[in-house]
Amino acid sequence: MGAISSAKHAGSTLARNPILFVAATAFAVVQLPQILLQWTGLPFVASLFNLVTVVVVPFLIGGIYGMAEEGLDGTTSFGTFWRAGRENYVSLLVAAIFFALVVFVVAFVGILVLLFVTALTVGLTGLQGGVSPVALILPGLVGLALFVLYLATVVFLQFYEAAIVVDDADVLDSLKESYRFVRGNLLSTIGFTVVRWTPSVLTSLLTAYFVVSSIGVDLQNTEALEPETFQNIYAKLSATELGIVVAMTILTAGIVGAFTRTYLIAFYVDHREAAATAEQSDDEYDDDLFDDEYDTIG
To answer: In this predicted structure, what is the pLDDT of residue 65?
Structure first.
């Protein structure tokens, strides 16, 4: 099973269960106020609302993933949404906190290392008569390596939610299981990650382009841009333009979100089943080999 075959599996699941688009749209609606508040000059209110979403999101994630798993080989319903969300809520909430802590630690340590290397390199070259562009090569390489490490952390742990919903793993085991899963399917996981992230990146760029164009920003004249240009950005939109942004966000998030989340479950389940089948075949081969040797001895 490769990334493309799992994408086809996800597509057939969505075609058979369009209700998944409804669930993903509900997820987008819950997160939309936080995005709008952040960009309308109300960061404190956005932070408070973020606390609400942190509490609600694990339930929604559990429900959508539960529906996606059930829909892989049949049909699903909102009954599964409520059941899976309720049963996996605590584990998903705690695991999300652990995941965020791991990513934060990796990013924080990486920034400290980069600052140290930059200060050391610039300081040493400065003592020798000035900082040359060559002196920035080492910090650049270190920064690139740390960025790759950050991405690797996200990639290796991205299946912890699937491990909880599909395999009923506990918090720590879900992170370990995600790491083992990616390690055993590294190349296909890289392809999966590219396919999964591409729609989200493209739709985000499309929305950003519409917003920036609506407020009259000339992207070809970047030298004239100032930090104040992007402050309270949604407040600069007309009611019609803001309505279009909201509609675009909900529509694209509903469609893309349904695909990416169903795709993750399809990829995880397909590869777990393939691994289980291969292991069973190996066991059967070992049993047959033992029987042949026993018959020969007999």
So the answer is: 97
